[in-house]
Design a protein that fits this description.
The protein is α/β, with parallel strands linked by helices. It folds into 2 domains: 180 residues, Rossmann fold (3-Layer(aba) Sandwich); 98 residues. 30% of the residues lie in helices and 17% in strands. It contains 10 helices and 12 strands. The strands form 3 sheets. Strands 6-5-4-10-11-12 form a 6-stranded parallel beta sheet, sandwiched between helices. It has a 3-stranded antiparallel beta sheet with strand order 1-2-3, covered by helices on one side. Helix 1 packs across helix 10, helix 5 runs parallel beside helix 10 and helix 8 packs parallel to helix 9. It binds nicotinamide-adenine-dinucleotide (NAD) and zinc ion. Zinc ion binds next to loops.
Length: 333
């Protein structure tokens, strides 16, 4: 892989859209290798469009030249599908800091009230009815044209798979909401089963799996309360909570594809959650170009070769169109 830092005609990158005196925006010049951070300047409105166009064209060229693009996605790619992120302006935690407790493993295991809140939130989650948006479709276009080697996602909403990726190319660092898992015995089942029980009135459903070796004469079911033993462990969604380690196989596979990548595009992530965020400096160390696409500045903007700020469902289609690719038609359903 060719190193990119400091090489090539990288122009100004639109760094953030921070209204300051009648629409001026801050603009970051990409940081050179080893530099502490990017240089900042303020651009008047008339210059902004030029800077964005130039950036989009530059990054589009990189995409069209790349053979092993890795998209590293976060919650921001799914807000356009109606799923709130955590830390954006309409983020779940921005609006209600108490919501963070349901994402903490220790709180979830110790506190029935936290679990009941989590189940209510799951039942009414926008994830179940969400459909992929043009940002997801743009990544599918990259894959179909043979440029994309993997999507490494922090998301748990399965929208990348539904958008049409080869599922084998989607690495879910933080698991999926579409399955439940028992904390005691590890039993994994479709989430729909647990949600049906919540809908039927169980506020904190417990694992209904038979303990290993148990052979019930009657099948487990609604009558199990009067029947034989069942696990009874705490049920969770099959996702990674704060305080929990990632699946080493999935993390290892993600590190591998990033090491092999020639271009890594971090999309819609505040890049604050580890170890996912660490994949960005890993990409840089491994010689890949790094592009960040996000509405707000991230902690790792200074590591990137280019930062494109804007609405993901607009920016990504523009980037792949600039690379000469056509978006696939929306997946049915
Ligand atoms: N859809 C999901 O699956 C989902 C939703 C919420 C949280 N999470 C989980 O929460 C954690 C949150 O970390 P994170 O870094 O992914 O998210 P985050 O909430 O920390 O950051 C999201 C970033 O995306 C930006 N953003 C939001 N909508 C955007 C848009 N339409 N266009 C451009 N930028 C936009 C925000 O400004 C923010 O910087 C992850 O671990 C993830 O697993 C997942
Ligand atoms: Zn169990």
């Amino acid at each position: 892989m060719e190193g990119s830092a400091g090489a090539g005609p990288v122009s100004l990158s639109l760094g953030w859209v921070a209204p300051r005196d009648a629409g001026w925006v801050g603009v970051a010049a990409p940081a050179a290798e080893g530099a502490a951070g990017a240089g900042w300047a303020w651009l008047p409105p008339a210059w902004q469009a030029r800077a964005v166009e130039r950036d989009v064209a530059e990054v589009s060229t990189w995409l069209s030249e790349a053979h092993q693009v890795v998209a590293l996605t976060g919650a921001g790619i799914s807000t356009g599908s109606g799923i709130p992120d955590y830390r954006g302006p309409n983020g779940l935690w921005t609006k209600d800091p108490r919501a963070a407790r349901t994402s903490s493993l220790s709180h979830y295991l110790a506190d029935g009230e936290v679990r009941r809140l989590a189940w209510r939130n799951r039942l009414s989650s926008p994830v179940w009815g969400a459909v992929p948006n043009p940002g997801h479709a743009a990544l599918v276009a990259l894959e179909r044209a043979g440029h994309l080697s993997a999507v490494v996602t922090q998301n748990v909403d399965e929208l990348h798979q539904r958008a049409g990726h080869d599922p084998a190319r989607v690495l879910e660092l933080h698991g999926t909401m579409f399955w439940s898992r028992c904390w005691s015995c590890g039993d994994r089942r479709p989430m729909a089963e647990a949600l049906a029980r919540v809908r039927d009135g169980e506020e904190d459903p417990r694992c209904a799996a038979e303990p290993a070796g148990f052979r019930a004469e009657a099948p487990l079911g609604p009558d199990r309360a009067g029947g034989g033993p069942y696990c009874g462990g705490v049920l969770r969604s099959d996702t990674i909570s704060f305080g929990q380690a990632l699946d080493p196989a999935v993390l290892g596979a993600a590190q591998e594809v990033v090491r092999e990548a020639d271009l890594v595009v971090a999309i819609g992530s505040s890049l604050t959650v580890q170890p996912a965020a660490g994949l960005v400096p890993l990409a840089r160390r491994s010689g890949a170009r790094v592009v960040i696409v996000n509405a707000a500045p991230t902690r790792l903007d200074a590591v990137a070769d280019a930062v494109v700020s804007g609405e993901i469902s607009v920016v990504l289609p523009a980037l792949v169109a600039g690379a000469g690719l056509t978006l696939p038609a929306p997946a049915a359903g």
